[in-house]
Amino acid sequence: MTEIIPGEMIERKIYLLRGHKVMLDSDLAELYEVPTRRLNEQVRRNIMRFPSDFMFQLTSEEAENLRSQFASSSSGHGGRRYRPYVFTEQGVAMLSSVLNSERAILVNIAIMRAFVKLREMLSTHKDLARKLADMEKKYDSQFKVVFDAIRQLMTPPETRKRKIGFEVREKMARYKSAGNKRHR
């Protein structure tokens, strides 16, 4: 079976909020190819399936942080007029039961695989850090430089904020006045 959505695309849409790995309602709606309001409507109709550890609404501060992070529009300019909902891994799994379509099933499978992959990567990183600490205890200070270098390699790089939009560089425009004199 060909992959319906690349795993890397899904992984970029998984965030860590309040100690949970979550996905935004709007990102999920995009993946399912349904309007966000339709997704949330189905959730409201089946609210008993979504306890607080499956889904929660962002606080105003969290929503504002997301808006500023992604430079999305504000509520006054055609953007969202309510705080987004986020779904934990279990909540995403539950969505396939309320969005009854073949695409919902296929997308959910891809999302579950992405969550599992992230969990495996985190586990591997923790195991590696533990093994490194154990090895460091066995060797003397001569190897401190080596262990420090390995730790630096294990540290994720700082992410820089990408500029949104584009930049145009033009030559300075020359304007003519009524008397054909140049202004500077």
Low-confidence stretches: 73-78
Total number of helices:
7
Beta-strand percentage range: 5-15%
Largest sheet: 4 strands, antiparallel
* Shape call: extended
Q: Judging by the overall fold, what is the CATH architecture of the domain at 7-121?
A: Roll
Q: End-to-end span in angstroms?
A: 65 Å
Rounded mean pLDDT score: 75
If strands are numbered along the chain, what order do they take across the biggest sheet?
A: 1-2-4-3
Give the tally of β-strands: 4
CATH class of the domain at 7-121: Alpha Beta
H/E series: HEEHHEHEHHH
CATH topology term of the domain at 7-121: Mlu1-box Binding Protein, DNA-binding Domain
Classification by helices and strands? alpha+beta
Primary descriptors:
single chain, 184 residues, alpha+beta, Mlu1-box Binding Protein, DNA-binding Domain, 4-stranded antiparallel sheet, 7 helices, 4 strands, 50% helix
Word description of this protein:
- By secondary structure, the chain is an alpha+beta fold.
- The termini are far apart.
- α6 (102-138) runs antiparallel to α7.
- It has a four-stranded antiparallel β-sheet with strand order 1-2-4-3.
- The chain is built from seven helices and four strands.
- The chain is extended.
- The longest helix is centred in the middle third of the chain and has 37 residues, at 102-138.
- The protein has a domain at 7-121: Mlu1-box Binding Protein, DNA-binding Domain.
